């Protein structure tokens, strides 16, 4: 087996669901994590930047655990690893931090042993761990992905985001774990609501593929998860209703929340007004939030260069180890 000295991977964050595509649609975003991994005499995990605060730095760390899943799958033994990670992705805000860590750890571990596993196999393993393919698929493949998971295998098709699509995320200053935001969901839904979502999710994929910006707003409406999660995200209901009148092409809860996402036409001249409206509305509900203008990331983790390196420090530009 061809083992390289060390590997470095860049992984995009993600926004899952895009409204109606619960557990199905995802889009990679230009907010990144970097993971460096190499064999070591004893395990050492270094985490850089405020977003990494509180995460375990021993063999319980998610990235170490997913790396061992890869080695077990291939039948190699590398029990001791040096792993470094720097991430721009805030934790538990609905921007796919866990998906980034899973994908980053898996792609890095696979690369470390000469990439014996295909991207499709990594996708199956990552989906099995995360429980749904939307956010891991976006981080792994980039672009907009539509995915299906049958409990064993995940299939996907990647759409190239239109060059005029820009994304505004409003990140509240509180955390909401995906597991908590899934607990409020009902286990059964009516046929009417199922039809409502199937039709809009299909329309959204078609609108995104064909550049029909005029239909994105209508297509991003949802009855499967957002109404049930509304009580967890103050201000969300007002924003979902009003943001399309303030210049958003469409608006949704990002992943399991609490971040809200607006899809915007890059040419829109009133982007600043939209941002102010969203921040002011959150504030009126007592929520402080940060706005970030992002782009869809067309490249996923697997498409970016894997380099030999043992100088992670180059990359982190003075970020402090936490
Ligand atoms: N770099 C990382 N290393 C280890 N664990 C991580 C990392 N990033 C995220 N996690 C785990 O994922 C959890 C957040 O996942 P989740 O609740 O799904 O929210 P998110 O929307 O950010 O993915 C964190 O509390 C932590 O347990
Ligand atoms: N489909 C999932 C997506 C969760 O994404 P995350 O980025 O919030 O972890 C859900 O809506 O629960």
Automatic annotation (TrEMBL):
<feature type="domain" description="GHMP kinase C-terminal">
    <location>
        <begin position="205"/>
        <end position="267"/>
    </location>
</feature>
<comment type="function">
    <text>Catalyzes the ATP-dependent phosphorylation of L-homoserine to L-homoserine phosphate.</text>
</comment>
<feature type="domain" description="GHMP kinase N-terminal">
    <location>
        <begin position="61"/>
        <end position="143"/>
    </location>
</feature>
<dbReference type="GO" id="GO:0004413">
    <property type="term" value="F:homoserine kinase activity"/>
</dbReference>
<comment type="similarity">
    <text>Belongs to the GHMP kinase family. Homoserine kinase subfamily.</text>
</comment>
<dbReference type="InterPro" id="IPR014721">
    <property type="entry name" value="Ribsml_uS5_D2-typ_fold_subgr"/>
</dbReference>
<feature type="binding site">
    <location>
        <begin position="90"/>
        <end position="100"/>
    </location>
    <ligand>
        <name>ATP</name>
    </ligand>
</feature>
<dbReference type="InterPro" id="IPR000870">
    <property type="entry name" value="Homoserine_kinase"/>
</dbReference>
<dbReference type="InterPro" id="IPR006204">
    <property type="entry name" value="GHMP_kinase_N_dom"/>
</dbReference>
<keyword id="KW-0028">Amino-acid biosynthesis</keyword>
<keyword id="KW-0547">Nucleotide-binding</keyword>
<keyword id="KW-0791">Threonine biosynthesis</keyword>
<protein>
    <recommendedName>
        <fullName>Homoserine kinase</fullName>
        <ecNumber>2.7.1.39</ecNumber>
    </recommendedName>
</protein>
<dbReference type="Pfam" id="PF00288">
    <property type="entry name" value="GHMP_kinases_N"/>
</dbReference>
<keyword id="KW-0067">ATP-binding</keyword>
<dbReference type="GO" id="GO:0009088">
    <property type="term" value="P:threonine biosynthetic process"/>
</dbReference>
<keyword id="KW-0418">Kinase</keyword>
<dbReference type="GO" id="GO:0005524">
    <property type="term" value="F:ATP binding"/>
</dbReference>
<keyword id="KW-0963">Cytoplasm</keyword>
<dbReference type="Pfam" id="PF08544">
    <property type="entry name" value="GHMP_kinases_C"/>
</dbReference>
<dbReference type="InterPro" id="IPR036554">
    <property type="entry name" value="GHMP_kinase_C_sf"/>
</dbReference>
<comment type="pathway">
    <text>Amino-acid biosynthesis; L-threonine biosynthesis; L-threonine from L-aspartate: step 4/5.</text>
</comment>
<dbReference type="InterPro" id="IPR020568">
    <property type="entry name" value="Ribosomal_Su5_D2-typ_SF"/>
</dbReference>
<dbReference type="InterPro" id="IPR013750">
    <property type="entry name" value="GHMP_kinase_C_dom"/>
</dbReference>
<keyword id="KW-0808">Transferase</keyword>
<dbReference type="InterPro" id="IPR006203">
    <property type="entry name" value="GHMP_knse_ATP-bd_CS"/>
</dbReference>
<dbReference type="GO" id="GO:0005737">
    <property type="term" value="C:cytoplasm"/>
</dbReference>
